[in-house]
Amino acid sequence: MKTKSIIKINNIGLGSLINKIQTLFVGLLRIWSIPIVLMLSVTAGFTTYYGLSHFIIPWIALAITIAVQSVIVICSLEIAGMHWKANRLRYLSVLLSLLVAVSASVTFSYFRFYEISQSENIHISRLNKVRQDVNDYLTAILSAKSSILKQQNSELDKATTDATQAYFGTLPQVPAAYKNLVGEGHFWKHYNQLYQTKKEKFDQLDRGFHLLDEDIRKLQTSLNHLEIDLENNYPLVITGLQEVQLKFNQLATSVGYSIPQAPILMTYIQFSQGITPSFSMWTGFSPFAFACAALVDFFTVLLSYRLEFTAPGPLTEHEQELVFECLRQFSEFRINENDELEMVIEKSEIERARRYSDWSRMFAVGFLLSRGFLRKIDKRSVEFAPNLYPLIADRMGAKLRALKTQSQPASSSENNPVAHEQL
Predict the structure, then answer these.
(1) Are 303 and 77 contacting, i.e. CB atoms less than 8 angstroms apart?
(2) Residues 113 and 127 in one domain
């Protein structure tokens, strides 16, 4: 008998110890959740303020950011303590407020995460655009150069042919009296002068294009070295492009050729500066940036919800006794769809007929609802929260032990004849 008693005591002590450890662990997690929620809220607030401050005045953006993050935490806490069927209008209003606040937070936080995640891609795209614009312009220049040289070469060939025909007297424009007269006559001198002028112009144009080719080579060298040393090579690209544009325009206009449009490059400060948040960022949508912005608010809502979903703290001995005695006065219990113990808090028909006063037990229900040990299902029923079961079990166990203690002396006196005779 002594061995069995020791085993029972040890089992009770071990279970109580495990329950206390578990309660302590859950309590520590709950305490640790509070600074995490605050840190997440501050993080989301910073990113929201960063994006919002680019659209409105900074102090107004700060006030809106504080309001948005406060609404997210407060609405998450309120939703955890409400049920859909209890008060649909209030539930929908709180849910709508939460969705609006989360949407605003994610939208403006997206700009910050987009800037961080896409800064390298934006730099590369800017670099590629500069290269593409310059290369397209150089291609247009080379094409125009080829056309100009072809045109000038054709005109030079025609001037050569005219001078030769004028020398042999076979030029169509020569009068009939001077036909087939070979020699350096009046017509030959005129057409030879035109040929010499055209040839000098062609040679000058050719020398100009050779110098232009050298500038184009320097420009392409600076363009290829942009990734190696952007700070030093980017100004060289701008200077080289301007030099090429100036020389080509002079050569092209000298022969009456239309010039292609040159690209307008950003300055080095504009090229190297970060991007400014704008709604155009949604055009080049970044799933990664959006996921990062959404995750921060998701964890804030989730931890805030869990923070309220669990009971805020243990009940005192007097509170436990009060709650246990008041809950015992309810008579309708069932296991609901959530696998939780559900009880009806309305008066029964008999209680209404007897005009029973349920103030004490309704006080207990309201007290447990406010402390998170009960959850409201609808207007007439509530369910037990997980933290309430150990308290009720402990009280029921104490009652059972008290009943056993009272029944043991009575049974022992009945089995003892001497005691029976004395009685």
Answers:
(1) no
(2) no
